[in-house]
Design goal:
2 copies of one chain form a homodimer.
Chain A: E1 5-8, E2 18-23, E3 35-50, H1 58-68, E4 73-82, H2 88-106, E5 113-120, H3 127-140, H4 145-154, E6 163-171, E7 174-183, E8 196-201, H5 207-219, E9 236-241, H6 255-277, E10 285-293, H7 296-308, H8 310-317, H9 323-331, E11 343-348, E12 351-357, E13 360-361, H10 366-372, E14 377-383, E15 389-396, H11 400-407
Parallel strand pairs in A: 4-5, 8-9, 10-14
Antiparallel strand pairs in A: 1-6, 2-3, 3-4, 3-9, 6-7, 7-8, 10-15, 11-12, 11-14, 12-13
Helix pairs in contact in A: 1-2, 2-3, 5-6, 7-9
């Protein structure tokens, strides 16, 4: 029983003691929800990972300060439409004003409020709308599944589906729940984390271990996703833990910690794949699975290189078994291997096919390959025959729609 | 007079003693020229730079062996349509057979014949057609400008225009000529060199310096181009020097050597820009010019990061002054800088505009910016205010056409 994870319905309100809300504040989009809140009355231990981009959006700077301190956290306020990036001192001041407004509405300290923004870079937030939105959110917040749905919808930009998931895991005789939501469709090439992701859990755990668990699970989940190779200025993944599950506090590595990490990995992988499959303009989720690589680092580089290749992505869009482009992308990944020894397979719901072995293509049927590649989830498996390490990366195909979305995103 | 370069008409046949040809051999394409030859009766010193991809096409392996040896070179045979990459031992054998056929037709040693291929990866060459093509090429070769044009057309794949250029430079009282042609439109992200480029010169120079000059000028020209971030398996740039200009042999660094490098840089920059502007599906040549960077390496990384950003490229296609994406791309380039201090400008034939300063956008006119960005050549200038180093990189916009070309390239 202990350590067993189980998928359950819901998202950020699944864990005990968490409330959420999503409202239409008219920040930039019209007639849709565009502000979200996550709230816990019980103070939370908080962990976070943030963009590695030198250009960091104001909310990233605000959140990093709070996460690196010792104080507890009560709420996260998010807006979509405007990213509050490249907005100078004024933009940073707006983070404080947003947190101030939330602190007043929720009767919590200002430095217990995290903020996040996503959308157009370079535009200033309309603070009157943001302040009004915060009041509406504080009013509307609830612990229902519907409230989690509303929040997940409110943080979307070019996303076509909202993304949330939840699991339970048995720890120390108690049921611990982790729930999460994320958004991300364009400018997705997380490095240290995703666009925006918010995870809540009722686990009882020290801050140090919580941060460690987040960092560790992000490496093989969100950091292995790419839609277009552009690492955003706003990437933020937050994890709030309010201790309401009542498990014995996890204060050192061990079995309990491993079980939590496993459940967290499951949440992060699910959300990461949802994000990749909903990449801007995507018609398919494209997975690269590298096995028998010489090292973990090599496996990651190889897998990521394949899902980042524009040519490969365009071929997947065309259901074209253009394996030469995959070999090419493996070749410039930075990892060493022997092209004469490795093997390449395509896999989807329609089956699995060997494509390449002994330095050249096998005699496969193009027709069958095209059929296999016409499924909504497509995997290429590269067997490097070098060692024992493996990694997966997730991306999507490159379509006309991607160009369309990004040629006039601002208009 | 000494060291003065002058642009002249022509390409690979511009330099004294070089002949060329282009014929339709039906390798894969129908009803168009698809095989080319460059030939010098006088033996040539040869230099070359090749792809850094771990997966190297058979012709790359063949050429590297010859270039690394001491023997002189007489000819290069090129085919388009099939890349002879990922073709195993058989493919490598076909390189030798091609060189054998040329050696027999031209009465030169087999190891004085370089070969190059470009096109689909993984397909074997139809050797009967290649052999017949070599005979036609040997027959047709001539030192006319038309022959150079024919060769430049024959090496094209998805290129929409042929690419050649030539300059003269005064060295040691003699007129030295350098001419060149190249091809490349997709899978363009050269690292150590371009897709395929062939340069001829009548300069008299030692092999060591020739190789040095090529490597040095490639760094700021071909290596600063990207169409889609995919480093090809076939990248090859060859430089043949037959010494027919009669200048005193250049055997050590000095004024003569510098003048030659300067002329070679001019040739390489012209060809590199032609390649970027003719990127698959491109409607505009997109240049990123980085000035006042802290180091040369930083300048190159920053410039290349901007022209590689899919989001920025899509914005250029839409004539959208989405400077936030440019700042974002600078931010994840790997170079450190202060976003609050730097400045951003757009420039084209229509004028020059300041867009961003002091950490935020200036009050520019979107209408004027769109007008400026509607020109066929568009430059973004990033003034980093960090030091004295500069670099330029060249790419193109990302259009529907790019996706179309690459979704069904093989069909």
């Amino acid at each position: 029983m202990t350590g067993k994870t189980e998928k359950i319905p819901g998202g950020v309100t699944a864990a005990k003691g968490f409330m959420a809300a999503g409202v239409a504040a008219g920040v930039k989009y019209q007639n849709r929800k565009d502000m979200a809140m996550v709230y816990s009355q019980a103070p939370c231990t908080a962990a976070g990972v943030f963009t590695s981009n030198v250009v960091k959006a104001a909310p990233v700077i605000w959140d990093k300060e709070i996460i690196s301190g010792e104080q507890t956290v009560h709420a996260v306020v998010v807006n979509s439409g405007i990213a509050n990036a490249c907005t100078g001192e004024l933009g940073y001041g707006y983070c404080r004003e947003t947190a101030d407004a939330a602190a007043a509405s929720l009767h919590v300290p200002v430095d217990s409020v995290l903020v996040a923004s996503t959308g157009v870079i370079g535009m200033q937030l309309p603070m009157d709308k943001i302040r009004a939105g915060v009041c509406m959110l504080a009013e509307a917040k609830s612990d229902t599944q519907q409230a989690g749905d509303d929040a997940a919808c409110a943080i979307m930009t070019t996303d076509t589906i909202s993304k949330q998931t939840a699991v339970t895991v048995q720890i120390g005789g108690k049921t611990v729940t982790i729930g999460g939501m994320c958004k991300g469709s364009g400018m997705i090439h997380p490095n240290m984390c995703t666009m925006l992701g918010f995870l809540t859990t009722d686990v009882c755990m020290t801050k140090e271990l919580l941060q460690d668990a987040l960092r560790r699970t992000v490496q093989d989940t969100f950091n292995m996703v790419s839609v277009d190779g552009d690492t955003s200025t706003n990437d933020t993944l937050l994890l709030l833990a309010n201790g309401q599950a009542g498990n014995p506090v996890i204060s050192e590595p061990g079995e309990d910690y491993e079980h939590f990490c496993q459940a967290l990995h499951e949440i992060n992988e699910t959300l990461a794949k949802m994000m990749a499959g909903d990449g801007e303009g995507a018609t398919a989720l494209f997975e690269a699975k590298v096995v028998h690589a010489a090292s973990k680092e090599d496996a990651r580089m190889l897998a990521k290189s394949v899902i980042c290749s524009s040519l490969t992505k365009a071929a997947i869009f065309g259901h074209d078994a253009n394996w030469g482009r995959i070999l090419c992308a493996l070749g410039y990944s930075g990892a060493l291997f022997d092209p004469e020894r490795m093997e390449l397979y395509f896999e989807s719901r329609a089956g699995k096919m060997l494509i390449y072995r002994d330095g050249q293509a096998v005699d496969y049927s193009e027709e069958e390959a095209t059929k296999l590649l016409s499924e909504p989830e497509v995997t290429v498996i590269a067997d490097m025959k070098m060692g024992e390490e493996a990694a997966s990366a997730w991306g999507c195909d490159l379509s006309y729609e991607y160009v369309k979305i990004n040629a006039d995103y601002r208009s």
